Amino acid sequence: DHHLHKFGRWKRSDPVTPDQVERAMAAYDRSLERAARRHGLTHPHVVTAHSFVAGFCEFAWADRVTFFCRDDWLSTTAYRPLWPAFAEAYRRISRSGRSVAAVSQQILDRIDPTGPALVLPNGVEPAEWLGPLPADPDWLAAIPRPRAVYVGTLDQRLDIEGLVELAGKIPELQIVLLGPV
Question: How far apart are CA 80 and CA 38, in angstroms?
Answer without folding.
Answer: 38
